[in-house]
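REQUEST FORM: STRUCTURE PREDICTION
Request ID: SP-0412
Submitted by: Lab K.M.
Chain count: 1
Length (residues): 460
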Amino acid sequence: MIARNEEASIGLAIKSVLALVDEVVVIDTGSQDNTRIIAEGYGARVIDMPWQDDFSAARNIALSEATGDWILVLDADERLQPVRPVEFQRFLSNPSVAGYRIQIVSRRNEKCTQTFQLVRLFRNHPEVRYRYPIHEQIIPSLNVWAEEQGMVVADSPIVVLHEGYFQNRTAEKRDRNLRILRKAISTFPDEAYFEYQIACETLVRLDDEMLPVAGMNSALMSLERAWQKIQRLSLPERERLAYGPDLVAKISACRLARDCVPQARQIVHEGRELYGDHPVLLLQSAASECRYLLDFADQLDASERAKLLNSVRRDIHVLHSTNLAHLAVPTDERYRTLYPLRYLGELALLEGKVGEAAELFEKALTVDSSYSFAWLGLAECARFAGDRKRALKLYLRTVTENEWNHRAWLRGCSLLEELEFHDNAASWRRKVALHFPEHPLAANLVQQDELTEPWLLTSG
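STATUS: Completed
RESULT:
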């Protein structure tokens, strides 16, 4: 492992593997706390290395120092879940396997656990080394070497629990990552991966939607440049990109945030031609199709509408039955348990089945009582049924649960205008204009208020 100022967690990380490994190698990149003392106390060999804004360089120094036949890679804020030594040895004794993908379970908070797969257990060979200065990858060199040796990279049931970064280090981590990514884009101009990653660092997301806050348009440009670079690759190379589905989904989500619904649908269609029924694409397809059905209802005949509705239901059914643990990009359980309920509710509402829609949104709230899009769905049900006062209360509940639900602010604003609560509507418009400046309606909302609220011209 590599570590810096990890005294709070490194002891547990090392302790979790002591029954299985012959040695522990820690590269310390400049700790100023008790990281070294704790690691050495557990028998680790600690090697000092000045930090050079290059994760692969640090990882590869650790690999060059390791003497075992196999490498197990952990971060200092991770713990290997218990595994029987005899079972672990069975993996290492398989002569046909060059490396194993293990499951990383990342706890973001009490309600959100992400599970994905990474290669963290592999044979020790000088040709197998990490690449890229950030979001470093072992799989490119491991795949080449494994193919030369007639070996494969296989799945395993091994689980590593990732506790994540402390909150007071989030900004520091983000600034560091952006600095390295900008340098990497200059160093590797044809590599799509870094354009994708710099967008991931800057985008702001609310559950399964992108938010049109400041910087979203710039991030979208990075994503679209990454997609253009991917198109230059051969078809097999494109199909092997683990981050490809997530890249496509993010482009589509950003386009939806800008109300570019046909373009959002198009990129999802392109992505599914490459990556099939990947969970993030199934969900994003449901999102874009629901918006299309809502915004372009008057342009669809009955057969087209029925076909789209059935297609979305089929995608949600497949999503609900998908095993998320085998993905290379973090995807949490809400993709299977919570988000499908939202879109099934939206489909029911599009068909005028208000009672069914309300039941689905209520069911979503039993999964997560703070899920703002379920509260928004109930508001839409009340509005559809003609109960505007209840709808307004539910819009208020939605933004109380999460003030970043821009759809609730916009829908609530329109209802306030209907009810002729013009002062309140102006307040809600200001909220959208100031907090979601890259929403297509933001400029118009500011102009509306400038007619009656000149102070907005000089406010913050």
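NOTES: Residues 302-320 form the longest helix (19 residues).
Reviewed by: T.R.
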